[in-house]
Design goal:
5% strand; elongated; mainly alpha; two-stranded antiparallel ribbon
């Protein structure tokens, strides 16, 4: 074939994408992340140049490693899903989790302010006075001291 297909240029991949059942690009990116994380390469660009990967793939491995999601990383390495799609999925999940936690905090604050004194006392007894003090009052006092 001459490289033309249906009137346009068709790009051909060079070499094999898989090696012993693992996607080579993901292995290069994982190696790039490792040398970046341990300080051997000072930047993602340097890590990419050392491994023949690219910044986006190396950063995607970093996202998956930071999230502790080895399952998605393994799926990407096995060629079952795109590395960038896996990292995007983890980012969306992290964003949704953060939003849910913020909403829960707002809901708890609203619930406490709308509760009767008797209900608040019952909640404090259920948590324990020491837990309320350590987890709610002291952090607030520390935050107030640090703000100007």
């Amino acid at each position: 074939m001459d490289g033309f297909h249906k009137g346009g240029l068709r790009r051909r991949r060079r070499g094999r994408q898989m090696d012993h059942g693992l996607r080579r690009a993901v292995l290069r990116a994982a190696t790039g992340w490792q040398i970046y994380a341990n300080g051997t390469a000072s930047t993602l660009k340097a890590a990419a140049q050392c491994t023949g990967s690219n910044i986006h793939y190396i950063a995607a491995v970093g996202v998956l490693r930071a999230a502790g999601n080895t399952s998605l990383l393994n799926q990407a390495a096995a060629g079952e899903m795109s590395l960038l799609a896996a990292a995007s999925q983890v980012k969306r999940l992290a964003k949704a989790t953060a939003a849910r936690k913020a909403k829960l905090a707002d809901d708890l604050a609203a619930h406490l302010t709308e509760s009767t004194p008797t209900e608040r006392i019952a909640a404090a007894r259920a948590l324990g006075a020491e837990e309320v003090w350590l987890q709610m009052v002291l952090p607030l006092l520390d935050e107030d001291r640090q703000s100007p």
